[in-house]
Structure formats: structure tokens, C-alpha cells
From TrEMBL:
PANTHER family documented for this protein: INTRON-ENCODED ENDONUCLEASE AI3-RELATED (PTHR36181)
Protein name: Homing endonuclease LAGLIDADG domain-containing protein
Lineage: Eukaryota, Fungi, Dikarya, Ascomycota, Saccharomycotina
Annotated keywords: Membrane, Mitochondrion, Transmembrane, Transmembrane helix
Signal peptide: none
Bilayer-spanning residue ranges: 12-31
């Protein structure tokens, strides 16, 4: 009858409509998958004395004056041999020397090998950038109780996988030696990791020496020093502008320090062309601090012309520092303060 025929036609149209919608969804997700795969395609080329170049939608590496510029992306690819030529790795070593560690600790009867960095939670994006560059590791957050009873939100990036430590961390730290006495930690760590020592009872007692293994000239002559230094400034440097009492004008300053590292501070002072002397306190903490206009300008020139950039909260601090300097006539007379970093 007509009613049955009408009902059958209506159901047929609904079925056809549902099928068409289903096919459109299949086509949509298929096209989306193709675009995603295309954007994430990785192409690596390795030439003599050149870095591996990996291209994807989040990566830009350019070569300018034999230097490589990195825009926050993955360098390591598990399907290829790690190429350590990119100076961003020297930056990472410098960062770890300031705020990180390379250690062997006891875990029951076994040994736990670990490389890690701990920063204030405001720098969580920086640690995600480092993880993205290395391609491995985990990030966790924790609360650290301060002496006044309040808590600081901290973020930790660490690598514990032995294969990742052997195949990624060891090649980087072999090429870009630590310049503080943490280098002793690394050599101890490296020896027992590569010898596959597993048990705590097999590990000898270790006490880190207080003296550096490098002289001032050794450090200055390291070809990766400028890139390493940006990472070290990221961890230990401080830019500030303040108004001293009994003065009408503001004063800008830069400060960096490290314990048991007088030779390193002296080398940094010479490299940055800073005129102020290094001060070492009773705890053997050596500090380089300058308020001299010519010194500040030399430090600005170093950071502006370096192909490796500050990547974390210190970059924001530095940009605010520049912004304030542009309002200070004494500095504007001495040099053109950059408009951006």
C-alpha cells in the first residue's frame, strides 16, 4: 500500500544519507591523516662537518656564518645516529652545569643512573623545549618546602633509561665537556654506565674534587664556549635594574656565580670583556658582578650576536632588562639598545 511504500522510500533515503555521511567522514579523516603525515615527515642529511638537518612543521635550522640556529624542536631521531654538531647541545651542557646533575644513586641493591635538571615551575616550558630537543626523558613537578614554611612549585626533567643515557647524553657530554667540577661527576658516571655496573656494592666511594681540571686559558680556548655560556647564563645569570639610595638615576647590573669555580668565572670575565674583578667569598663561591656601562654593553652584544638564544624565563628577564635600558639616557648614549632579542 501507499503507506508501506512511503515508509520504505523514507528508510531507503535515510540509509543512503547515513552512508554518504559515513563516507564523507572517512574521506575527511583520511585527508587529515595524509596532511598530518606530510607535516611530520622527517628528512635527515648528514654531510662532513655539518649537522643533521631535520625538517618538520616545528623545526627551522638555518646556517649562518657556519653556525646553526635552532627554533625549539627535536634534533634526535631514534632511527638515525645522533649528530652532535649543533651548538644547542653545548647550551644544554651549560644549563645542566648550573641547575642540573649527572649522578649514580642507590636503589635497593641496584644502581640508578640519572641525568636531571630542576627549575622553578615558571620555567616548565624551557624543560619541555629541552625534552623536545633531546627527544627522550620525563618531566614531573613537585613542591619544595622553604625555610619560611612556604612551598615552591618545582619542575624536574630527568633521563634514567640507560640506552638513552648511553646513546644521547654520553655523545653530547663527550664532545662538550663540562667546565665546572661537575665534569668529575660525569667521568665517574660515564665509566660505570659504559661498564654496565649494576650493583651498589660494586661502586667505589666517590667524592667530587673541589678544584677544576681546566685552566683559564683552557676554558677560553674551548670553541663551544659562547654556546655553552648562554646555557650557563640561563641557569646562573641575573639581569637587574635598580635605583640605589641617595641617587636619582637607575643602575643596571649583570651577575653570575658558581662555587669552586674561580678559574671559570675569570675565563667568563675575560671572554665577555668585563672589567670588574671576581669576588670569592668564604664558602668559595666566585661571583662576577658588574654595573659598568661598557661591561653591560659588551654582554648585550654577546647575547644579541650569538646564534644560540636564551630559551626560558631568563629570556623574558633579559627582554625586560633591554626595555628598561632604552629609557636610561646613559646607556642610550653609549650604544643603540636593541629593540628586541
Amino acid at each position: 500500500n501507499l503507506e508501506d511504500t512511503y515508509y520504505s522510500n523514507m528508510m531507503l533515503k535515510k540509509s543512503v544519507l547515513c552512508w554518504n555521511i559515513f563516507m564523507l567522514l572517512i574521506d575527511y579523516y583520511f585527508i587529515k591523516l595524509m596532511i598530518l603525515n606530510k607535516n611530520n615527515m622527517v628528512k635527515m642529511s648528514i654531510n662532513k662537518k655539518q649537522s643533521a638537518v631535520i625538517k618538520n612543521k616545528s623545526l627551522i635550522i638555518q646556517r649562518t656564518n657556519s653556525n646553526y640556529l635552532l627554533n625549539n624542536t627535536i634534533i634526535y631521531d631514534k632511527n638515525h645516529k645522533l649528530n652532535t654538531d649543533n651548538p644547542i647541545y653545548a647550551y644544554i651542557v651549560g644549563l645542566i652545569e648550573g641547575d642540573g646533575w649527572i649522578t649514580i644513586t642507590k636503589k635497593g641493591k641496584y644502581l640508578l643512573y640519572e641525568m636531571g635538571i630542576e627549575l622553578n615551575n615558571r620555567d616548565i616550558q624551557l624543560l619541555h623545549k629541552i625534552k623536545n630537543i633531546l627527544g627522550v626523558g620525563t618531566i614531573i613537578t613537585r613542591k619544595r618546602k622553604l625555610k619560611n614554611g612556604t612551598y615552591n612549585e618545582m619542575v624536574i626533567y630527568r633521563i634514567r633509561n640507560k640506552d638513552h643515557l648511553k646513546n644521547i647524553i654520553i655523545p653530547i657530554f663527550d664532545k662538550y665537556n663540562m667546565l665546572t667540577n661537575k665534569q668529575y661527576d660525569y667521568l665517574f658516571f660515564r665509566k660505570y654506565l659504559l661498564n654496565n655496573v649494576k650493583y651498589y656494592e660494586e661502586l667505589p666511594l666517590y667524592i667530587r674534587p673541589k678544584y677544576l681540571m681546566y685552566t683559564v686559558n683552557d676554558i677560553i680556548n674551548k670553541d663551544y664556549l659562547p654556546y655553552w655560556l648562554v646555557g650557563f647564563i640561563e641557569a646562573e645569570g641575573s639581569f637587574s635594574v635598580y635605583k640605589p639610595t641617595k641617587m636619582n638615576s637607575k643602575v643596571a647590573s649583570f651577575e653570575i656565580s658558581q662555587t669552586n669555580s674561580f678559574e671559570l668565572m675569570e675565563a667568563i670575565k675575560i671572554y665577555l670583556k668585563v672589567s670588574q674583578n671576581i669576588y670569592t667569598d668564604k664558602y668559595n663561591n666566585s661571583r662576577m658582578m658588574t654595573k659598568k656601562i661598557s661591561d653591560i654593553c659588551n654582554i648585550i652584544n654577546f647575547l644579541q650576536n650569538n646564534p644560540v638564544k636564551l630559551l626560558g624565563y631568563k629570556s623574558l628577564q633579559y627582554n625586560l632588562f633591554l626595555k628598561t635600558l632604552r629609557t636610561m639616557p646613559n646607556y642610550m648614549k653609549y650604544m643603540d639598545i636593541p629593540q628586541k632579542y
